[in-house]
Automatic annotation (TrEMBL):
Family stated for the protein in its record: Belongs to the cation transport ATPase (P-type) (TC 3.A.3) family. Type IB subfamily.
Cell location: Cell membrane
Source superkingdom: Bacteria
Gene: actP
Protein name from the UniProt record: Copper-transporting P-type ATPase
Residues shown, of full length: 389 to 665 of 722
Organism: Octadecabacter ascidiaceicola
Length: 277
């Protein structure tokens, strides 16, 4: 591409809310074979709501008391459901990618995924409808109930996935959520391959795996735990609405957090490389 073409391309991209932080990303993007998306906050709005609940009212209050100390999106949803006047939690400890625990009114409250329950030696029922993220609760070593949370996809997610596939790209979703919840969303959006149950520092490995055989991978994410994957990807694309660490690790920033920006970015890169402006 000529310098003029690159200038026009980055300018056109900026008009579409796509900021190129590194010039060579424009070049790298058009050679990409796979686009891997983070789920929460990238393909979904990132503001889950509680849609099912088998906890007793008093237990829900205790759970929300513990979650009040967590800034995880799931925690915000649970605190919102429980309302005001939450009991005070002490000894709160968050376990990234798994859950949170604490003590409320002398009772030990453990909240999170299946691994959390297994460590607690509790047999828990995760049976929430497909597409919901289960959050299970153990109190004093006994199963107390499950919350089901739902996070709506962004309005442009499906069309973006379709546009990527129409260009012959493989579309992948990488998530810390369960296979059931992430898989249901993946089916909705028409995503080729869903990698679920990924630990916070496991997204890098997922990207490296996708790079096998010299395939070029773009990774799109918004969270702190996406930063290493954004850095290791051939092109890292961060949601401008995401955390600063993610933005700083990325080559490209989608200003308004609109996934459609990925399609715009690829289109601009192809045009630029062919000097079609
Ligand atoms: P994601 O990649 O979907 O943002 P995380 O890696 O942050 O997910 O967390 C993975 C899983 O761990 C969640 O789906 C949830 O089951 C559990 N979890 C993590 N933090 C919390 C929390 N504060 N409260 C309840 N569950 C949690
Ligand atoms: Mg995210």
């Amino acid at each position: 591409a000529t310098p003029t073409s690159i200038m026009v391309g980055t300018g056109r991209a900026a008009e579409l809310g796509v900021l190129f932080r590194r010039g060579d990303a424009l070049q790298a993007l058009q050679g990409v074979d796979v686009v891997a998306f983070d789920k929460t906050g990238t393909l979904t709005i990132g503001a889950p709501v509680v849609v099912s609940n088998t906890l007793r009212t008093q237990d829900l209050a205790a759970v929300a008391g513990v979650e009040a100390a967590s800034d995880h999106p799931l925690a915000n949803a649970i605190v919102t459901l429980a309302g005001r006047h939450l009991p005070l939690a002490t000894e709160v400890e968050t376990i990234p990618g798994h859950g949170v625990q604490g003590v409320v009114e002398g009772r030990r409250i453990v909240i999170g995924n299946a691994a959390m329950m297994a460590w607690e030696g509790v047999t828990a029922q995760a049976d929430v409808p497909a597409g919901q993220t289960p959050v299970m609760v153990a109190i004093d070593g006994k199963f107390a109930g499950t919350l089901g949370l739902s996070d709506a996809p962004k309005p442009t997610s499906k069309a973006t996935v379709q546009a990527m596939k129409a260009r012959g790209l493989e579309v992948v979703m990488v998530s810390g959520d369960t296979q059931e919840a992430a898989g249901a969303l993946g089916d909705d959006l028409g995503i080729d391959h869903v990698i679920a149950g990924v630990l916070p520092d496991g997204k890098v490995d997922a990207v490296k795996e996708l790079q096998t055989g010299g395939r070029k991978v773009a990774f799109v994410g918004d969270g702190i735990n996406d930063a290493p994957a954004l850095a290791v990807a051939d092109v890292g694309i961060a949601m401008g609405t995401g955390t600063d660490v993610a933005v700083e690790s990325a080559d490209v920033v989608l200003v308004s957090g609109n996934p459609a920006g990925v399609a715009h970015a690829i289109e601009v890169s192809r045009r630029t490389l062919r000097n079609i402006w």
